[in-house]
Give the backbone structure.
Amino acid sequence: MNLRQAGGKVPIHTGGTLHPYQLVDFPSRKVFDSLYSKSVGASSRDKYWNVLTKRAAGATLDDAGRPFGLTKERVRQIEAKFLRLMRQHHFESKVS
């Protein structure tokens, strides 16, 4: 499942058989920035934020990436990394 299919929510893969995904709210910009603070520079975080919010709003890979000169594959990679980071953040916050 991807951001576009989740209808504005973030699908967190739980690994369950009956309910393999849990839908959670899209993070605030502050949480988003903290997820990427160690691995991505500020200018790229702005680009990623815009691409991912467009995807969550229903944009295709091509439509989300075109304004930034990104290919569909690069948008898919950005989204996949975001989903991994969100899964890690979600399960860490449940433990705390």
